Amino acid sequence: MTTIATQIRTTAATGAPARLNCLLAEYENPAQLLAAAEQIRDRGYRYWDCHTPFPVHGLDRAMGIQRTLLPVMVFAAGAAGCTAGLVLQLFTNSFEFTVWAMVWVTGYPFLISGKPALSIPAFIPVIFELTVLFSALSTVGLMLLLNHLPRLHHPLLACNRFRRASDDRFFISIEARDPRFYRSKTEADLRATGAAAVEAVTEGDD
Amino acid sequence: MAHHDHHAPDLSAGNIGGGKFGALAPRLFLAGWPLFAFGCWMALRGDNIADGARAYLVAMVLALATCLGALFFVIVQHLTRAGWSVAVRRPAEAIAQNLRWIWILFLPIAWMGWTGKLVDLYPWADLGVLRSIAPAEAELVANKAGYLNQKFFFVRSAAYFAVWALLANFFWSSSVRQDRTGSPSISARCRKWSGPAMILFGLSTTFASFDWIMSLSPAWFSTMFGVYFFAVCATCGLSAVTLTCIALQRGGQLRGIVTAEHYHDLGKLLFAFGIVFWAYIAFSQFMLIWYGNLPEETAWFLPRQVGQWYWISWGLLLGHFILPFVLLISRWPKRWPSSLAVGCAWMYLFGVVDICYLVLPHIPHDLAEFTDYRAFAEKHAADGPHGPGLPFLVAGAVLLVFAGTARALRREQSLASRDPSLAESLAFENM
């Protein structure tokens, strides 16, 4: 078994040894990456990812990624927007209820172009817009949340080799926090997938 | 260990022909023509053909909407240089090519014009008759006589059919020629003409809907009507394209070529145009008229909210929007052909209901006598879709369109097998 080329360095400021963040394996084309991803998936790793310069079809399946729950959450958010739009207009325009919402507020039926105070057709545009607004904002917001974003820095970004992930190379990274991560074994696993190179990525030493 | 190498799909003649669906063509013709002819006879016999002519118009508009929706699909694929759709484009082209003969369905209306009966269908066709029934309406309609007169009407109608036949023939014959020559320049030529084709398509369908459907109530107008008719075309056309693909596969063709990925996208298009866009346009038209509350505009909705039409209006809201919205919004119903087929058949059925809703109700001439909605509703409680021969005409028209489609797919391939983008379409996956 070959050892990893990168030396474990110490941080200049503290003198403590740099912590291992992940092992990074490099591949030359999408086909190699897909085959490697299937092997890594079958080894049961959980905290790992693929990095490609462009979308690779079938990668989700090769990595064994479950479908996201995002659509269900967005549907719920849209339904909430729909209800909010309806209730807000019903309350402010159709009824004279007094309710406490931080302060006491009273509904105020207002005669608009001779229409009944409860005119659903007039409410539809606002209901529609609020549904779309809630759905769109929750899609973006929850997507960021589920991806642990925004994130200002990642140890991979300090790795020179990784720069080619936005150009012409394909990578798999397995994080050290993975329960199945054992440095020598994981490195062997990555080499067994036919990686062109395997490199240890540390954090705190940049 | 999983495999990810794609097996090359079977592109032999046995997998890209018409199969059992194509073989149905003669039987569909044999069933379609007598039904349609019998419906015509029921609708257009006798002296008073007012109701029958509208029933006939429903069938003609349905056949047209189906083919026009398919034509739109074909044009938009070339316009956007779409790669994914090559595997399903030929069935759409086969439906659209029916536009080459569909002018035959207009002949009974031309006959009505010839024999002076057009006024039974279009009140503007004889202002004298209209004046004797509804003088106030006649006065409004007289101002439109420069556009709404019989001679110009038939000239325009001929122009629409000419444009559609030309467009459908261009895309159909180009595509099947590519099967033989394999020339990529044919695709480039289709792309080049898809822009002008789309403009022609938009103008012709908009004005055709004004002329043939909106002018049934000549005093009424809606600038949104053309877009509404486009939504009708998209509903009927996209569901028919999907159903044809499923029928071809059930008949043993296109195995391994049309996949869940293609059905998923067809389902998305139907969901977007046939369900959501339709509801958006239908409601926008309704709300502007409801809010403005002008008698000459609201008159169009009044007869659609009394008698059986009241329930049909609610039925459209539920069956054309709310129910299919909930049932087709998820991923799996669009990817599983059986559930998608049910969804498409359902949407096609409600496309028919929608066309009945657009065409059949009259704005009654006794409208001015009522000051109260309730009294009007009581008087018209028995109103409903009473077109003589309507079921025969509708069934006949649908069978004829699918017969023409099956015949085309039996004579030519059911796959544009030498399109340069075929490989992209076969490998296509939704992200």
User: What separation lies between the terminal Cα atoms of chain A?
Assistant: 28 Å
As laid out across the biggest beta sheet of chain A, the strand order is 2-5-1-6
- Quote the beta fraction of chain A: 15-25%
From the alpha carbons, calculate the radius of gyration of chain A and give it in angstroms: 27 Å
Q: Kindly state the mean pLDDT of chain A as a whole number? A: 88
- The general outline of chain A is elongated
Discrete helix count of chain B = 18
Q: Give the largest interface.
A: A-B, 20 and 14 residues
| Number of separate domains of chain A | 2
Helix content of chain A: 25-40%
Q: Could you tell me the mean pLDDT of chain B?
A: 94
Shape of chain B: globular
Helical element count of chain A? 5
Q: Percent of residues of chain B in beta strands?
A: under 5%
Number of strands of chain B: 0
Number of strands of chain A: 6
Structural class of chain A: alpha+beta
- Low-confidence sequence ranges of chain A: 1-12
Explain this structure to me?
The complex is a heterodimer of chains A (206) and B (431). Chain A has helices spanning 30-42, 59-63, 70-94, 120-146, 183-192; strands spanning 19-27, 48-51, 98-101, 103-106, 170-175, 197-203. Chain A is of the alpha+beta class and 206 residues long. Chain A folds into 2 domains: 20-65 and 151-202, no CATH class; 70-146, no CATH class. Chain A has a 4-stranded antiparallel sheet. Chain A has a two-stranded antiparallel ribbon with strand order 3-4. In chain A, α3 runs antiparallel to α4 (120-146). The longest helix of chain A has 27 residues, at 120-146. Chain B has one domain. Chain B is built from 18 helices and no strands. In chain B, α2 runs antiparallel to α17, α3 (50-79) runs antiparallel to α9 (184-212) and α9 (184-212) packs across α10. The radius of gyration of chain B is 22 Å and the shape is globular. Chains A and B meet through α1 and α4 of A and α11 of B.
